[in-house]
């Protein structure tokens, strides 16, 4: 339970840049001093990766030790149990620790401050929480990041500066004491030695190699190093063979100390030697520290909780405290409701908006590339031939693709409309970023059914092939459609001419505006061209070169110098206006032409082929809108809904996404409250368990 509290606090500290003051046993030492071996002896299993001289501990490893019937290990975030009595499981555990360490190290770095949490249970294991830190180094070797030394120091200091942390300072007995770096660091963090336990490793090698045994005595009595400690211990953690078992190391350690001259001469006391005595002493010290500090820590979190709850009540009195995950679930339900609303759109609304948008998209092509070139042929047979060829080309190449584009854009617009329409009095803008991201990602993933274009092409082709208008109502509707279209084009053309020739005399008089020299030339050219059209109302669309010369000479006679290109440019707009006005007049005549059309009478005045063309276009638009609406309601809306659900599921699993998309003071405050309550409740439960144990 205590380890759970430390895990939660570890996350809290990392996120809020604070440092809790709950006790842990922090294992520090120079690289290759035997830190990991001491830890393994306490845990009674060879659980850590090892390498000769190479840095193996690349990130802090928190090991929670407790007594249990079976000797097993387990990671905090995994359900797999490693049986520490089996060599295969031990090897797998070492590999997994190494993989996790390497994963935690970012690109370009050698060590990482991320903690790996592991629990070890077994018979006779002393209860405590230890943190194994990367070994302190003096010299950096090739391949290490430039800041490795500083990073190790900062990680070590961060753990040691906790006033309730017990520092287990490991010193290699086989090397000169003067080469130690870690003792200086420990003495800075705990100058009085009130929470430091000193451990001298490799005492067997020290006894063999050190000329003066008094040096070992001086170290164990705390007289040689510039640091103080609660207790001093001497241990032997093996002969340097990485394949030795814990039992054989224990036997070797006991055998060594039984025959050690240091003990026989009284330089070492019996309670100061062996890892078993060390474990008991560390565990005893750890639990004394826990009992002394845990209630104070719980009170601190109780005060923090009160402050946060007060802040919430004052800032958000009418809102429930929803953390990020709860807000995400609420937003998810809202988004799914909005997608379902798409199925409530009436067929009539779909078809109206599809038909209107499709005509806006294709009208320019129909008028400029099909109707005007055909109408300017001045011959009924040529008109129909030109129209049929151009309609076939258009249907084969562009129209189906354009129609699907329009349908997809319409679906997006309706989806966006439903998501924005919800913004009423109850609208919570905290969800806006998330909703927008879900909408964008769903749209990005949506692909229109690939077969839609092929089926649409056949339907559109058949609709445009049909020329038989069956009743007067359809005829009148086609005339109305044609009139509206031509009126709109005429209005655009008049606007272009107005810009070309500048303000007329009324505007100049009342608005004090003037024509530019170019507008004056354009105006004179326009007047000359209008005269030409009055003389020959059936003039073809193109101006002959001799006509251009005539116009230019007439203008020069009035003192207006004009370029032939400008004459042709002006003619294009003047003729277009003349043609559209003529077409509108003819359209008006065709109002009574249905009877002639139906009886197939040949009357040159009432050849209403253009009305039939507009009826064909109008009918194609209606049939296309109907087909697209069926595709939308029968499959595309459902597929979009499926995409939205998939996006929401992906976002739900991506914590980083949720942090980016659900932001603001309110979210952070709710998150803080949840975390602090969880810590406080765990601490109180732990304190209660401690009291019951007493």
Model regions low in confidence, pLDDT < 50 over at least 5 residues: none
Shape: elongated
Number of helices: 25
- How many strand elements? 9
Percent of residues in helices:
55-70%
The radius of gyration is: 44 Å
Q: What number is the mean pLDDT?
A: 86
Adjacency order of strands in the biggest sheet:
4-3-5-2-6-1-7-8-9
Enzyme class: hydrolase
Organism: Eleutherodactylus coqui
Pfam family, one: Dynamin_N
Membrane topology: Single-pass membrane protein
List the helices and strands and how they pair.
Blueprint: H1 2-16, E1 25-29, H2 35-43, E2 61-67, E3 72-75, E4 82-83, H3 87-104, E5 116-122, E6 128-132, H4 148-160, E7 166-172, H5 182-189, E8 196-201, H6 203-209, H7 213-220, E9 231-234, H8 246-259, H9 261-264, H10 275-315, H11 324-340, H12 347-375, H13 380-397, H14 399-421, H15 432-445, H16 452-465, H17 472-501, H18 505-511, H19 517-535, H20 545-557, H21 564-589, H22 594-599, H23 609-653, H24 655-661, H25 665-693
Parallel strand pairs: 1-6, 1-7, 2-5, 7-8, 8-9
Antiparallel strand pairs: 2-6, 3-4, 3-5
Helix pairs in contact: 1-25, 10-25, 11-23, 12-13, 12-14, 12-23, 13-16, 14-16, 14-23, 15-23, 16-23, 17-21, 17-23, 19-20, 19-21
Domain Dynamin-type G: 19-295
Protein name: Dynamin-like GTPase OPA1, mitochondrial
Keywords: Apoptosis, Coiled coil, Disulfide bond, GTP-binding, Hydrolase, Lipid-binding, Membrane, Mitochondrion, Mitochondrion inner membrane, Nucleotide-binding, Transit peptide, Transmembrane, Transmembrane helix
């Amino acid at each position: 339970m205590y380890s759970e509290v430390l895990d939660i606090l570890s996350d809290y500290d990392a996120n809020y840049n604070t440092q809790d003051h709950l006790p842990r046993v922090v294992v520090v030492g120079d690289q290759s001093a035997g830190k990991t071996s001491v830890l393994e002896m306490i845990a009674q299993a060879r659980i850590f990766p090892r390498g000769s001289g190479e840095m193996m501990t690349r990130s802090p490893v928190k090991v929670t030790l407790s007594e249990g019937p079976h000797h097993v290990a387990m990671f905090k975030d995994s359900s797999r149990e490693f049986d520490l009595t089996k060599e295969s499981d031990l090897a797998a555990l070492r590999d997994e620790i190494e993989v996790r360490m390497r994963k935690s190290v970012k690109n370009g770095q050698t060590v990482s401050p991320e903690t790996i949490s592991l629990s070890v249970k077994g018979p006779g294991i002393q209860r405590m929480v230890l943190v194994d830190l990367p070994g302190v180094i003096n010299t950096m070797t090739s391949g290490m990041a430039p800041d490795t030394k500083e990073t190790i120091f900062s990680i070590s200091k961060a753990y040691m500066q906790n006033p309730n942390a017990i520092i287990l300072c490991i010193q290699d007995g086989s090397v000169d004491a003067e080469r130690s770096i870690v003792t200086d660091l420990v003495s800075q963090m705990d100058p009085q030695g009130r929470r430091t336990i000193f451990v001298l490793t490799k005492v067997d090698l020290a006894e063999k190699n050190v000329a003066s045994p008094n040096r070992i005595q001086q170290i164990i009595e705390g007289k040689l190093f510039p640091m103080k400690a609660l207790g001093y211990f001497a241990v032997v953690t093996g002969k340097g063979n990485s394949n030795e078992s814990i039992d054989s190391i224990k036997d070797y350690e006991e055998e060594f100390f039984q025959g050690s001259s240091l003990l026989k001469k009284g330089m070492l006391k019996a309670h100061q030697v062996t890892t078993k005595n060390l474990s008991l002493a560390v565990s005893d010290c750890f639990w004394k520290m826990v009992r002394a500090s845990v209630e104070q820590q719980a009170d601190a979190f109780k005060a923090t909780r009160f402050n946060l709850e007060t802040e919430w009540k004052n800032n958000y009195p009418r809102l429930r405290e929803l953390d990020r995950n709860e807000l995400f679930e609420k937003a998810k339900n809202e988004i799914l409701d909005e997608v379902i609303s798409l199925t409530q759109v009436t067929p009539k609304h779909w078809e109206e908006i599809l038909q209107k948008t499709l005509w806006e998209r294709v009208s320019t092509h129909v008028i400029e590339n099909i109707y005007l070139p055909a109408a300017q042929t001045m011959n009924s047979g040529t008109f129909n031939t030109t129209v049929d060829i151009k309609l076939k080309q258009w249907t084969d190449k562009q129209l189906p693709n354009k129609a699907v584009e329009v349908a997809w854009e319409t679906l997006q617009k309706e989806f966006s409309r439903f998501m924005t329409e919800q913004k009423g009095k109850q609208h919570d803008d905290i969800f806006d970023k998330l909703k927008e991201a879900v909408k964008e990602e769903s749209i990005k993933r949506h692909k229109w059914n690939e077969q839609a274009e092929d089926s649409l092409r056949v339907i559109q082709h058949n609709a445009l092939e049909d020329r038989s208008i069956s009743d007067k109502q359809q005829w009148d509707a086609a005339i109305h459609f044609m009139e509206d279209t031509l009126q709109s084009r005429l209005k655009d053309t008049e606007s272009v001419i107005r810009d070309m020739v500048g303000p007329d005399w009324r505007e100049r008089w009342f608005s004090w505006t003037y024509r530019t020299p170019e507008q004056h030339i354009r105006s004179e050219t326009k007047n000359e061209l209008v005269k030409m059209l009055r003389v020959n109302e059936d003039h073809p669309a193109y101006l002959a070169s001799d006509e251009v010369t005539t116009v230019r000479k007439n203008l020069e006679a009035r003192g207006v110098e004009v370029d032939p290109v400008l004459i042709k440019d002006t003619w294009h707009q003047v003729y277009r206006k003349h043609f559209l006005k003529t077409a509108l007049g003819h359209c008006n005549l065709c109002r009574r032409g249905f009877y002639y059309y139906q009886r197939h009478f040949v009357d040159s005045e009432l050849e209403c082929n253009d009305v039939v063309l507009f009826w064909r276009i109008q009918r194609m638009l209606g049939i296309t809108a109907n087909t697209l609406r069926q595709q939308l309601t029968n499959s595309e809306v459902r597929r979009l809904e499926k995409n939205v659900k998939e996006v929401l599921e992906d976002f739900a699993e991506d914590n980083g996404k949720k942090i980016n998309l659900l932001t603001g003071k309110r979210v952070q405050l709710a998150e803080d409250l949840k975390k602090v309550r969880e810590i406080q409740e765990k601490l109180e439960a732990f304190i209660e368990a401690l009291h019951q144990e007493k």
